[in-house]
């Protein structure tokens, strides 16, 4: 390439060529193209976002002395590094980059000012040089070497990738990392644009993390560490002001993602998806923390890991909780100025910062504890959860089950929530019930859940809300037909084998704010799951007992054998054995269900609740309060067998088989059943059965037909009893298995159930 200035430079003597190159380099060092060496791209071009070579950045004359070219090539990288730093300051000093980046750029401008002063000094030396003592490239390199080291450190920090690993010389660096700016918005060919247009991702706490990572990686060099620490102190000043405002008021200053803010380490949960897209897809949803409550007055906040400075990561949870509790206090009408939180200030002193964060955290916790335990309301609502969801005093439950018996025996889709709620209100308002004078009885309501008990347990054990299982039974509930797979019953009773409504009925508590901080949605989901299991067990127990009372009225006294013929005596003997089988099987079912209830109530819930109440009263922070409640509730959930994969399924199957049994027994012992058609005309007046059937034609009571019907009933009862025992054996095996691996308390229940197990075979373990 031949340019006029190249020809002119080539014609100059070597000494004058060196002076001309020195003059051009001094111009380039302050961002101005020289006479012979010029920039290829303007200052606002996006090519300066990447590390580029001297050949790609500058246009230099080809006809230059090799010695001078070698010396110039040592200095020209400083020109490129300065240009990149200038571009960074120009872009990140804007409002869209955020206040942390602006503070960083202000600190860099201070360094650049010192750099320009040194260039002015060097330029003065060059101007005052003489022909006998000229200012050479070697002298220029000597005076610029300290600045070269400084700009190398600055560029190394700017080319650091978002994960904190510095790029090597062979890598193509960008400001700060490939995530620093959105390349899709600006093309490199857009060199004629007047203003740089960028989308900023590395901002706020993320920018501080980049600097902190460079301190960690390059802290061995004292001068480098001093430079990075200076930048970190200056850049963190506005971030610490945001932190101070958050710890004092619990308010975020314009922190919505995409706005000029969005720099702070805390964000509203409503902005979680936008914040996650802002900081990159590698951040999982679980890193954002937990939602404590679904109350609209409780604004949930989350920590954003990539916007959390490294020096604040150990205290991220405390910082989030402090501001969140301040918001709760404000919603409760507490004057936050009375808390007198300490001033963090703008100095980055780790020990002092830690102490002030702890003080703000403890004061917010103490103030919220005073609100929660004022007039004993927190423990009152905890008592309501135990009383109405775990049935501590369940006299109202007996009245409710008596009235709602028919409703709960229906299919879930045929049940009416309004009728169930009316029955519950009548039971709670019963003057004979202890709940009559309870001021919290109005927060109890009954609902019909959309997912069955097993799916709800699985959703809770996987950490999801119980509402996520709401669609799983839609197809099964859409049709009232019996599943094609059939049941273990014959066709005569297959219609009774459908999903019972008692397993979908649940009690709920409407917990007011701010007590939802402890009794949050996750805790209430677990209470509801426990409530559904206990309610289904109590309802099944009541149905079995009610069936026994009905059978007592229908069972005849012994009939003298001499008053009956041979076939009639044989039928009477079978009838007696059928009633005995009904009583025996029903008794074992009732005792087994009562043992399960006893284990849940007295071996698990009562001891755990007593320990939990004692620890909750001694809690010093709200986090401790929530942790104690969650741990003991999880322990109750675990010891009741609801976290074991097989135990809930087996218990539901036991309830299903008990229900099939008492429904079949009710069917065959009704006033029109076959069991009552066995008495002969001669003995009909001696028995209750005969009295009920006094008007029936004797011709319809053929002894052979009666015998066949009684035999069919006896076979069905044996089958029901065998299926119950088989399922009970499976339950005992599961309890023994989980007792050996997870929870030894299951052995207590297994021993009790084994005492009431029927059938043949060895007992015990």
From TrEMBL:
It is found in: Cytoplasm, Cytoskeleton, Microtubule organizing center. Residues 161-198 are annotated as: Disordered. Residues 161-171 have a biased composition (Polar residues). It holds the Pfam family GCP_C_terminal. Keywords: Cytoplasm, Cytoskeleton, Microtubule. One of its GO terms (cellular component) is spindle pole. Residues 184-193 have a biased composition (Acidic residues). GO terms for molecular function: gamma-tubulin binding; microtubule minus-end binding. This is Spindle pole body component. It comes from Coemansia reversa (strain ATCC 12441 / NRRL 1564).
């Amino acid at each position: 390439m031949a340019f006029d200035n190249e020809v002119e430079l080539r014609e100059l003597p070597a000494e004058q060529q060196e002076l001309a190159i020195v003059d051009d380099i001094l111009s380039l060092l302050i961002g101005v193209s020289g006479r012979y060496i010029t920039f290829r791209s303007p200052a606002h071009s996006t090519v300066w976002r990447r590390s580029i070579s001297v050949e790609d950045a500058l246009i230099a004359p080809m006809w230059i002395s090799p010695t001078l070219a070698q010396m110039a090539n040592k200095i020209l990288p400083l020109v490129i590094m300065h240009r990149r730093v200038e571009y960074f300051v120009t872009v990140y000093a804007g409002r869209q980059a955020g206040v942390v980046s602006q503070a960083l750029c202000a600190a860099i401008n201070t360094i650049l000012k010192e750099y320009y002063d040194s260039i002015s000094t060097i330029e003065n030396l060059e101007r005052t040089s003489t022909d006998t003592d000229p200012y050479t490239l070697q002298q220029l390199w000597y005076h610029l070497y300290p600045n070269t080291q400084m700009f190398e450190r600055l560029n190394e920090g700017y080319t650091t990738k978002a994960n904190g690993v510095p790029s090597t010389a062979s890598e193509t660096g960008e400001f700060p990392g490939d995530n620093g700016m959105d390349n899709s918005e600006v093309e490199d060919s857009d060199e004629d644009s007047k203003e740089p247009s960028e989308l900023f991702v590395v901002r706020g706490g993320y920018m501080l993390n980049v600097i902190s990572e460079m301190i960690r990686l390059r802290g061995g060099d004292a001068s480098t560490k001093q430079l990075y620490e200076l930048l970190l102190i200056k850049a963190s000043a506005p971030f610490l002001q945001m932190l101070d405002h958050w710890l004092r008021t619990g308010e975020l200053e314009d922190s919505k993602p995409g706005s000029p803010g969005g720099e702070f380490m805390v964000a509203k949960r409503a902005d979680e998806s936008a914040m996650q897209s802002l900081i990159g897809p590698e951040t999982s949803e679980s890193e954002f923390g937990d939602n404590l409550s679904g109350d609209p007055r409780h604004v949930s906040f989350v920590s954003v890991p990539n916007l959390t400075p490294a020096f604040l990561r150990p205290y991220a949870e405390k910082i989030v909780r402090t501001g969140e509790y301040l918001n709760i206090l404000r919603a409760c009408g507490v004057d936050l100025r009375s808390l007198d939180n300490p001033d963090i200030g703008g100095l980055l002193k780790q020990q002092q910062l830690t102490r002030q964060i702890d003080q703000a955290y403890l004061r917010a916790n103490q103030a919220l504890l005073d609100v929660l335990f004022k007039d004993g309301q927190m423990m009152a609502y905890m008592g309501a959860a135990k009383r109405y969801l775990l049935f501590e005093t369940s006299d109202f439950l007996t009245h409710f089950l008596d009235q709602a018996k028919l409703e709960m025996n229906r299919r879930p889709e045929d049940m009416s929530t309004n009728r169930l709620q009316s029955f519950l209100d009548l039971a709670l308002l019963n003057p004979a019930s202890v709940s009559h004078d309870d001021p919290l009885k109005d927060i109890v309501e009954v609902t019909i859940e959309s997912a069955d008990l097993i799916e709800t347990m699985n959703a809770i054990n996987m950490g999801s809300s119980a509402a996520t299982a709401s669609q799983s039974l839609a197809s099964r509930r859409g049709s009232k037909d019996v599943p094609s797979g059939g049941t273990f019953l014959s066709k005569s009773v297959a219609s009774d084998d459908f999903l019972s409504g008692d397993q979908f009925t649940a009690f709920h508590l409407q917990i007011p704010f701010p007590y939802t901080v402890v009794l949050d949605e996750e805790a209430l989901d677990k209470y509801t799951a426990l409530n559904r299991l206990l309610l289904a067990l109590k309802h099944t127990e009541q149905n079995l007992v009610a069936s026994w009372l009905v059978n007592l009225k229908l069972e005849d006294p012994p009939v003298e054998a001499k008053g009956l013929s041979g076939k009639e005596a044989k039928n009477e003997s079978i009838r007696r054995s059928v009633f005995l089988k009904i009583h025996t099987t029903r008794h074992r079912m009732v005792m087994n269900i009562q043992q399960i209830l006893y284990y849940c109530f007295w071996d698990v819930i009562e001891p755990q609740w007593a320990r939990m109440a004692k620890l909750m009263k001694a809690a010093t922070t709200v986090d401790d309060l929530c942790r104690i409640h969650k741990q003991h509730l999880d322990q109750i959930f675990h010891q009741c067998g609801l976290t074991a994969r097989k135990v809930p399924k087996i218990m539901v199957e036991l309830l299903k088989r008990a229900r099939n049994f008492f429904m079949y027994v009710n069917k065959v012992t009704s006033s029109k059943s076959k069991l009552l058609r066995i008495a002969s005309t001669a003995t009909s007046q001696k028995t209750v059965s005969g009295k009920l059937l006094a008007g029936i034609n004797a011709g319809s009571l053929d002894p052979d037909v009666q015998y066949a019907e009684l035999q069919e009933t006896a076979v069905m009862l044996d089958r029901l009893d065998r299926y119950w025992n088989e399922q009970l054996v499976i339950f005992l095996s599961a309890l023994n298995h989980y007792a050996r691996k997870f929870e030894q308390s299951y052995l207590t229940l297994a021993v009790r159930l084994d005492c009431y197990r029927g059938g043949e075979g060895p007992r015990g373990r």
